[in-house]
Structure formats: C-alpha cells, structure tokens
Amino acid sequence: MKGLCILGATGSIGVSTLDVAARHPHLYKIVALTANSNIDALFEQCLAHHPQYAVVVNEEKSKEFQQKVSNSVVADIKVLTGSKALEEVATLPEVDSVMAAIVGAAGLLPSLAAAKAGKTVLLANKEALVMSGDIFMDAVATAGAHLLPIDSEHNAIFQCMPADYKTGTDGKQVRRILLTASGGPFREMPIEQMADVTPEQAVAHPNWDMGKKISVDSATMMNKGLEMIEACLLFKLLPEQIQVVIHPQSVIHSMVDYVDGTVLAQMGNPDMRIPIAHAMAWPERFDSGAKPLNIFDVRRMDFEEPNLERFPCLRLAYQAISIGGTMPAVLNAANEIAVEAFLDRQIKFTDIPVIIERCMDTIVRAAADTLAVILEHDQHARVVAKQIIAEINS
Ligand code: NAD
Ligand code: MG
To answer: Does the Cβ of 182 fall within 6 Å of ligand 1?
Structure first.
C-alpha cells in the first residue's frame, strides 16, 4: 500500500489522479490533498477519499474550510494552511508518492521538497522543472528519488525508452525525439485574425480538457516550448534533438527515433488518466478507466512542421534554452503574467509573445546555480512583464 499526496488536487490533473487512485484502493491510500482556494471541491474530495491531511493555501478560505470539516463526518482530517504546508505534506513519512499538479511557479518549492525527501515524484507541473532545471534534476539524483513524467508527451517518451531507463540519465542510442503537438485551436486560423481571439476561444482545446493556463499555453504553443525544455532536462538531450511535430489527432503522444532507424511511438486516446495510471502503476500496469483506442475510428494520422511565425512562443522557448541560465525561468514567469492578463482581457492574444520577448530582452541572464537566483529572476520578470502590460494599456 502506497501513501499518495496530491498537490493541486482540485485541478484537472488532481481530479484525474483521484479517479485513477479510487480504482485501486488496495494499492493507494490518499494521505494528503491540497488546493489553493477551491474549498467546495476540496471538501467533496475529502468526503470521498478521507485523507489524513488537507491543505488550503489561502488563509481566509482555510478558516472557512476548517469549520466545514469540523462539522462533518471527516472531522479528524488535519487542516493546514499557507504555502509552507505544501512542503510539509509533500515530505510526510507516510507519503511514498507525490503527484505534483499545482499549476505554475507556485508548485516549485513543494515539488522540489518532495524530490529532496526521496519521494516518487509524479511530475505534471512542468513550469517547476523549466524554472529550476539542473537544480531539480540534481535533487532527484542526490536523493535517489524516482521522477516519473505525467505530461502525456514525456510519459510517452519515457515508455518508448529502454526498459531499464531512468529519467535524467543518457538516453543512449536515441537520435532524437519527435514531440507531438495538437497545434491547438488556432492551427489553421488566418494569422491576421489571431489578434482578436477571445479567452473563451483560447481555452476551448480541440482534444484535451485541461486547466485554463495550460489551455492558453496550448493555443500559443508555449506549452510545446515548455515541454521541449522539459524534455531536454528529463531525457538529457540537446534542444536540436527535439523536433516538434504537429499531429492534430493527438493519438500518438510522442516518438523516440533511435540510431538504427527504429521509431517507437506511444498511442492512446487523449485522456490524462493513461499517463497518470502508467506512472502510478510503474513498473507494473493497471486499469486507468480510459476508453481503449479504436484504431478504426482514428482512420488517419497527419503530421506537419510547426510554423514559427504563427507560434512565436515556440521560437522564444528555443531561444530561452539556448541562452540558458535563468532565461527559462524568465520565459516562464513572463508567460504566466501575460496569460493571466490575457484571461483578464487586459491584453490581446498576440500580445503574449510580445511581452515575453521584451522581458527576455530586458533581463540579463545569470547562471542558474542557486534557487535564490532563480526565484529572484522569476520575480524580476513578473515585475517587468506587468510594466510592459501597463504600457500596452496606457
Ligand atoms: P488546474 O488549473 O486545473 O489546477 C491547478 C491546481 O493548482 C488546483 O488544484 C489549484 O488549487 C492549485 N493551485 C493553483 N495556484 C496555486 C497556488 N498559488 N498555490 C497552491 N496551489 C495552487 O491545472 P491543471 O490543468 O490540472 O494543470 C496542473 C499542472 O499540470 C500544470 O503545470 C500543467 O501544465 C500540467 N499538465 C496538465 C495537463 C492537463 O491535461 N490538465 C496535462 C499535462 C500537464
Ligand atoms: Mg503535454
């Protein structure tokens, strides 16, 4: 029986993780669930899964949540608050595996704490890895932790790697990775219309049902940019070894191209419970609840090269990793602020890459050798991005 902590339990990945865990109650026990502020969803999850701990980061909401819990049949749940509590539950001795499913930079410290504590880290929170890079990978190696990718593409790559492969080691005999992308909702929209895209259109992804931030990232293809950086780190590859491939049907979740000419692909329906179940059962397999793939329904698969003029965010991600140091953290922070502003209708969809590029031009890269310098550059980029947004609106 393994103890599971879910960071970001109320989000899209968190909900799918609980769905998978509930199918295997003899294998997984829910130790801790965390949420930022959605206490109604967290309370329902507590009733259904009865964890030992529940964290509500927002202090006001946490008080309200404590009241609800105290007056319920799950009054024995320990309720904690504040962002430090995320690290506390991620490192509890009774926790074996941590699902890192907080969105954005807020997930960095608890995910890193789990890695340092030697937990099996199921990593959905790509932003944490993009920001901290080698620091994260070194923490995993030093603690002897297992790092299992949840992002469907990286999970696919992991599955196509040799059986004894461990993330962060050399993918021997691998020539390159074919990182697939759906291309999002605006793959075929005339470029001049992209300035008028609304948040509602941007979050309506054709194949995947996801949180708002990653849905916008998919529409700009920054998601693929972050994933390219994530793949370089997880699989010790150079950016030029990662070829992004637009594959609108989202049936192949990525491919590994070996030196002998073999290309291995992982396929399945676009359902995040598949990579989640893979990582939770690893090195075994178990039922995920996902519908089996009907290859006859798929009928055809298309592949095309991404257009960097249409998707400047992808170009910026390649630029950030080639500059290196703190630049991926700057890219990520500027993107988080720009996406938030777009969702708030403060800027246009096409302003997102403009803001990120100006941030990258303004902030001078430093070596990313401490967490302090990374967090400092993350904060700096947020300030600069907000200034640029204010200028756009003035
Ligand atoms: P979501 O917006 O649906 O959920 C985010 C979760 O994070 C929520 O539980 C929320 O309470 C928590 N959270 C948000 N801000 C927080 C803060 N400041 N402090 C603590 N907790 C906070 O997001 P999602 O779609 O589930 O994505 C989660 C992560 O997984 C992201 O990094 C995303 O890129 C990655 N991912 C998601 C999918 C997907 O299909 N949804 C696929 C691949 C990767
Ligand atoms: Mg993905």
So the answer is: no
Give the CATH fold of the 2-149 domain. Rossmann fold (3.40.50)
> Which amino acid makes up residue 98?
V
Which atom of ligand 1 lies nearest, measured to the CA of 125?
32
Q: Is the CB of 151 under 6 A from ligand 1?
A: yes
Backbone φ, ψ for residue 291 (5° rounding) = -65, 135
pLDDT in tens, 102-155: 999 999 999 999 999 999 999 999 999 999 999 999 999 999 999 999 999 999
Ligand in closest contact with the CA of 124: 1
Amino acid at position 319, single letter: Q
Q: Are 361 and 378 in contact (CB under 8 A)?
A: no
Select from 379, 106, 373, 123 the least CA-distant residue to 230.
123
Task: Locate the ligand 1 atom nearest the alpha carbon of residue 151 and give its number.
Answer: 43
End-to-end CA distance of the chain: 57
pLDDT for the residue 322: 97
Sign of CA dihedral 71, 74, 76, 80: negative
Distance CA 3, CA 280 (A): 11
The reported pTM is: 0.98
Tokens standing for residue 207: 């194949």
